[in-house]
Amino acid sequence: MAKRNSMENRLKQEKEKEYLSKRKKLRLFTLGTLLMTLVIILLMMSDWIAIYNVDTGKNEAAVSGFNSVSSGLSGNYSSLDKAKFGEMSVFSAYAESITHKVCIITVVVLFVLIVHAVIAFFGLITNKQGAFNIIDIIFIIAEATLFIVIHSLALSAKNTDIITEFCGNPACVVQSHAILPGVFAIISLALPIVALILDRRIKPKEDPEEEKVIAAPSPKRGKKHR
């Protein structure tokens, strides 16, 4: 009886160790999601709206995602402080409505990214998946959608007078790299999806049905009658 209990305990410990090992591997997906979110935030340093001169291969005017955040938060669209606002005054002068919308949506997407990063970090340190993976998926879809909207709005500036009046050169075109973080967001969507699938396949520490079988007493043998 003691030998049987010892084997059962050893089996239970091995299953628990295997379970914890699999749970630990799932943390890599959460870490990957967190790192991808941070990379996406860094990609906001790229040109959000730019007037690109094809002949010279240089921008005539440009603002980054962080420039857009500065204008969106401060409401300052005419400052000549290039370090903080880029050349926002140019875009605001010729495409005011579009520029304001881009800045406001950029503030929203940065807020969403920060909240997502905090949630991913919390999921990492608590070693909990499942619900956190579903939250990751929702956030990533929202982020990708917002970046696509920003990119589309930025490109729509070509329908204004900014090319003819500001640049005055048919070689100038409106560009936007706001799609880059959107592409990275779509790629990162694979991480929580795979993690969610693997999480569903991992058995819990204790299987209730198995526990019942282990705990069930062995049938007693009847006495033999002579």
Strand order in the largest sheet: 2-1-3
**Overall 3D shape:** elongated
Q: How many beta strands in the DSSP annotation?
A: 3
Model regions low in confidence, pLDDT < 50 over at least 5 residues:
206-216
> Share of helix among residues?
55-70%
Task: Walk me through this protein's architecture.
There is one protein chain. The protein has 226 residues and is mainly alpha-helical. It has one domain. The chain is 68% helix and 8% strand. It contains 10 helices and 3 strands. The protein has a 3-stranded antiparallel beta sheet. It starts with a helix and ends in an 11-residue tail after the last helix.
Give a quick set of tags describing it.
elongated; 226 residues; single chain; three-stranded antiparallel sheet; mainly alpha
Any chance you could write out the topology, listing elements then pairs?
Blueprint: H1 2-42, E1 47-53, E2 58-64, H2 65-74, H3 82-85, H4 88-94, H5 96-126, H6 131-155, H7 162-167, E3 172-175, H8 179-188, H9 190-201, H10 208-215
Helix pairs in contact: 1-5, 1-8, 1-9, 2-5, 4-5, 5-6, 6-8, 6-9
Summarize the structure.
The protein is mainly alpha-helical and 226 residues long. Helix content is 68%, strand content 8%. About 5% of the residues have low confidence.
